[in-house]
Amino acid sequence: MKRVLYVLIMCFCVTCLCAQKFVRVNQIGYSSALSKVAVAANMDATSYEIKDAKTNAVVYRGEIEQGKYWTLSREVIQKIDFSSFDKEGSFYIQVGTEMSYPFLIQKEDVYRELSQGVIRAFYFWRSSIAMEAPYSLFRGINYSRKIGHPDTLVYIHKSAASENRHVESVIRSPKGWYDAGDYNKYVVNAGISMHLMMMSYELFPEYYKKLGLNIPESDGVFPDLYHELKWEADWLLTMQDPYDGGVYHKLTTLKFSGFVQPSDDTADRYVVYKSTAAALDFAAVMAMYSRVFKEIDPAYCEKTLAAAKYAWQWAEKHPSVLYYNPEDVRTGSYSDDDLSDEFFWAASELLIATGEQSYYKKLDFIQKFDSPTWRKVNTLGLFSMRLHLDELPSFVDKKLIDQKFKSLAQSIYNQFKFSPGRLALKKFEWGSNGDIAINGVVLGLAYHFYKSDDYLHAMMGNFDYLLGCNPTDYCFVTCFGSKYPKHIHDRRSFSDNIVEPIPGYLCGGANPNQVSDCGQLNYPSLSPARCYLDDDCSYSTNEIAINWNAPLVFLVAMMENAGKK
After folding, report:
1. Which of 75, 224, 534, 535 is labelled catalytic?
2. Rounded to whole angstroms, how far apart are CA atoms 421 and 506?
3. Which fold has domain 149-391?
4. b/e for 413-431, b at 16 or more Cβ within 10 A?
5. Order of strands across the sheet with 37-41?
6. Alpha-carbon distance 24 to 10, whole Å?
């Protein structure tokens, strides 16, 4: 029966399978101190060999577990567990005649360059600055570009006009990160991205103090991650109306630009509308910033906390101002019709920052807590409160907070436990790689809190998936691994006349729900886990976004620190 199943699967999609390697590994490598797992797909194999990548000598042999059929990839997946092999070096796995890509095994710092790369991606995302050497260099390639979008002349859109800021009046709103593959800047997506990276710093401050990023602000005094996050915080502060505390939803051109360099996109830019979601996300981020970096820059953190309280006050006065694009604005909307989770997150961060009971009274724990997204952010507040559980005031129900977090972590762990693909994910959809990274973060936090190896192994499963141990055989981070995306949906990378993509970006990943962007026949497979196309036309699978890179920043730091005693 097992042999028949294997033959049927091979016949089902032989065209799209033959171009792929059937032995899949984390193409970056493995820590010698942690478990190590690869997979074989559709092999019906019983044994494997590990070979030295330089000499091709066999250095280890082992048996392969019996396979299980994974409906999401339509493959039989066999687990290759080589955890007992801890020799350092560069290796590959051979099963029959099939060979994996090479990978490293190291005791320490196996993911250090990756960690630097996925954070430096935010530097390359910067608005209002020229990219110049030496900061624009990566492995000998110069990704320099002229300054684009100085945003010193930004208009008040008619939807955002108020008594003190009239239509077409001008404000300054420089700095910040481009949101994705376009050149606009969105407050709500900045929210989840800032939170995840700040929380990563909270967990691993000593790690980040030693992680140099080679950015213009690098001074050897303050962590480079702090400098990068402040670039975005500086911009966010400009998005608050100083006259009433409201926050503009986004800074944008009226329509998406063409695929040109930032300096060539000269269309007028506007701040558009004030929304409750933007005000609450802003309040949460600024309150969190005030506690995370108060020892580094106390005066600035006093400013961010005051701004957070001001935005919260506006939101309480305007609790249901939903955002929808005005008729003349045709860029990303980030619309949301349920603001209960935004209120929960903002109240959580303000509670931790101030200790005031009034914020705690705003917390509704009846809500469902799930993997966070830019639209569903209450779990971010749960993360923060669980991390600071011992410091919260006595009136807080600490057992309830722990219970809610543990329930979420266990549900995500169960997704991994019962997945033949060794993946904690409900379904493949737009930004699936970001979802996988986020779930890896939840599992990593659970490991941090409860020290269970179950959570550690599940986190590693999601991590390995992103770096090559997946049905597409891609390491999904540009310029890392042996096979990575080279044609990301990104205006800068498309128009810079550089063959290699800008490094450090996690692409969106497999998504079977939208294949009309490049045409269905151009996708190699419609199986959910294999429906990915490395082409710039594929915004559905190959775009990049700050809210997908941010959890990867956190996840890499967790993996770098997991094996350390």
Report:
1. 534
2. 20
3. Glycosyltransferase (1.50.10)
4. bebbeebbbbbbbeebbbb
5. 23-24, 37-41, 75-81, 68-70
6. 17
Residue type, 49: E
Residue 543 is among the residues annotated as catalytic for this protein = yes
Residue corresponding to tokens 């997908």:
548
Check residue 20 and give its pLDDT. Answer: 60
271 φ, ψ to 5°? -95, 135
| Reduced 3-state DSSP string for 74-127 | CEEEEEEECCCCCCCEEEEEEECCEECCCEEEECCCCCHHHHHHHHHHHHHCEC
* Chain position carrying tokens 């500086």: 234
The mean per-residue pLDDT over the stretch 290-318 comes to 98
Residue ranges per structural domain of the chain: 149-391
Looking at residue 494, its pLDDT comes to 97
Give catalytic status of residue 489 as yes or no. Answer: yes
Is 109 a known active-site residue?
no
Output the CA–CA distances (angstroms, integers) from residue 468 to 25, 27, 101, 462, 525, in the order listed: 6, 6, 9, 10, 17
Regarding pTM above 0.85, the answer is yes
Q: Is the pLDDT of residue 95 over 90?
A: yes
Strand ranges (DSSP E) for 414-490?
A: none
> Considering only CA atoms, which of 454, 457, 533 is closest in space to residue 34?
457
- pLDDT band for 563, please (50, 70, 90 cuts): confident
182: annotated active-site residue = yes
Catalytic residue selected from 224, 489, 535, 560: 489
Please give the pLDDT value at position 564.
Answer: 75
Q: Any idea how long the chain is?
A: 565
Q: Convert the pLDDT of each residue in 111-170 to its tens digit.
A: 999 999 999 999 999 999 999 999 999 999 999 999 999 999 999 999 999 999 999 899
* DSSP character at residue 410: H
CA distances from 173 to 104, 165, 166, 238, 301 (A): 44, 14, 16, 5, 19
